[in-house]
Write a structure and sequence with these properties.
Aldolase_TIM, isomerase, 209 residues, eight-stranded parallel β-barrel, metal ion binding, 21% strand, alpha/beta, Ribulose-phosphate 3-epimerase, RibuloseP-bd_barrel
Amino acid sequence: MIEVIPGILEKNFEAMQQKIDLVKSHVKSIHIDVLDNTLFHNVTYNYWPAYKALTLANFYEAHLMVADPSSYVAPLVENGFRRLIAHAEAESIRDFVTQARAHEVEVGLAFDAGSELELIEPYLEEIDTVLIMTVNAGFSGQTFQPAQLTKIKRIHEEYPNLPISVDGGINKTTAPEAIASGATRLTVTSYLFKENPDQIEKAIQELSR
């Protein structure tokens, strides 16, 4: 079963709320990008108590594109996030995994399009999901990089039961390629909110086939 997860990267809560309202009745999970200009050059809206009411209705995951993901674990969990995904390029990944496990949430790791698979391999047996960036992390609206499909295939072959998320440049052309390679979750941003804002439900259904 392929799950489409809307990805939201915004600097203010009003813009974020507008996107959440567009998708919340059509999906189970919502993906929030978190950047603080430490690991990648961008900053997003990061006032976590504002999410408390929202997380009661949907399953929220945070994509932590930050240098110190461990410091985000407690405040995110306290405000309802149930899946935390940190970048393997970050600091103290072992501490992040340990802390997230202690808070009893799903634990994931991501790695950037420019990183080698070996960076994440030591953790694949102990995490709940892996997220493969098919663009360079930090900004939405980029073009899908087909070269990343080999990473998806390799992880799927070695860990066939591990959920694989793909994030970046996903649309009706690239989604089938990612799925054929082994992806089970599609994180989708521009294709939903910029290309199909008036046909969100239809776009989600098409991508999940």
